[in-house]
Amino acid sequence: MSHYIIRGGNRLAGTLAIHGAKNSALPILAAAAVCGDSVIHNCPRLTDISVAMEILRHLGCKARREGDAIVTTRASGGNCRIPDELMGAMRSSIVFLGGMIARHGCAELTLPGGCELGARPIDLHLGALSQMGASITESGGRLLCSAPEGLHGARIDLSFPSVGATENTLIAAATARGKTVLTGAAREPEILDLIDFLRGCGANIAVELDGTILVEGVERLEGTEHRVIPDRVAAGTYLCAAAMTGGELLIREVVPGHLSSCLAVLTRAGCRIGCGPDWVRLAAPPRLEGMGTVKTMPYPGFPTDMQSVMMAAAATARGTTVFVENIFESRYRHVPELRKLGAGIVVEGRAAVVTGTERLTGAPMACTDLRGGAAVVLGALAAQGESVVTGLEHIDRGYDDLEGNLSRLGADIKRSG
Ligand code: EPZ
Fold first, then answer.
1. Do 242 and 222 reside in the same domain of the chain?
2. What is the pLDDT of residues 152-184, one digit of tens each?
3. How many CA atoms lie within 13 Å of 411's alpha carbon, on the beta-carbon side?
């Protein structure tokens, strides 16, 4: 079984270019299923991206990698069913649903179900698609969707700004008959990146100042060439790694504005931060300070995807930090792992109180999920002595060459098995 052997205690310093955002590339690949031939640059090499390419092939597209780009062709033939193993391999397979119904008038897939972050319902996705004319039934854990007359525009108000439901609605609305008015939509940078891609393909989409999204359906989407935005969570992860090891890091090829809430927390922790148009520089103090209260919120609030790695950093700080997880019901599975290093963390419902300790000590740990796994790796980097970290399949879903990047910054981390 693949694992990391990490000898902690090294100060991380250097320069790093950040790869493209997984959470942009995935919905853009889902959109490519309803568009013409496209070239999508800056796609990270991740297992989730490979799963998305596999799904595209099932839907009748060709999808191949050329360097950092994925080249897709307009779907021809294909079927309206995603195999169960691909649905099971990646929860965000659900983001293919809107495009499938739009193109085929039907879709059949297994429910993505709960996962390591707790229950993850898809009622908002299904509600929006139903309002656009899809008939959806559920039987034996399978979703059967049809829209023999095609989809039509609708007024849709999401009761929570779900990222995935917003993406599904946008992709479906792009070629639906008439106008869709979407309120309560998510505003994450990845949503705007998807909109950019769809516009490049000829979609008629406007975003109003209050966040309302207007989509006037077009008959047919063409192809385009698009560059995926930088991965703000990967960027934040490396910044936390440098911050908690007293390091100094210049990250390039990022959009600093996407990182504002994280940079504010790192500044509170005592880091000095400078930004340019596409770079961020961080210089950490010898020891971080407690960060006060960090509440996860929809963008532009502090991202839930950064909660675990910021918690690893807080575990080494002088003072206390309180995290409040408002997005997912169960996103503290990394806590028992970090405690193995000696971290002082107490979870009470949605809150986690972290009392920083000067010395973490290496231990055997397992990655429990993607971002929780990154937190465990960061904890090991700051700990004295050796840690063995298993469960790397989680890391491989979202970090392109994590160990290579950390090694280049001075970490003692080796992948084995
Ligand atoms: C996206 O997941 C991201 N995944 C997640 O990143 C990220 O944590 C999340 O957005 C929030 O920012 C991708 O983009 C591929 P949501 P998604 O729908 O779309 C509830 C990572 O580590 N909800 O905004 O699934 C849901 O249960 C991953 O890279 C409903 O109740 O997130 C959750 O509590 C993990 N009904 C909350 O909304 C619905 O129909 C946010 O979910 C849909 C969601």
1. no
2. 999 999 999 999 999 999 999 999 999 999 999
3. 30
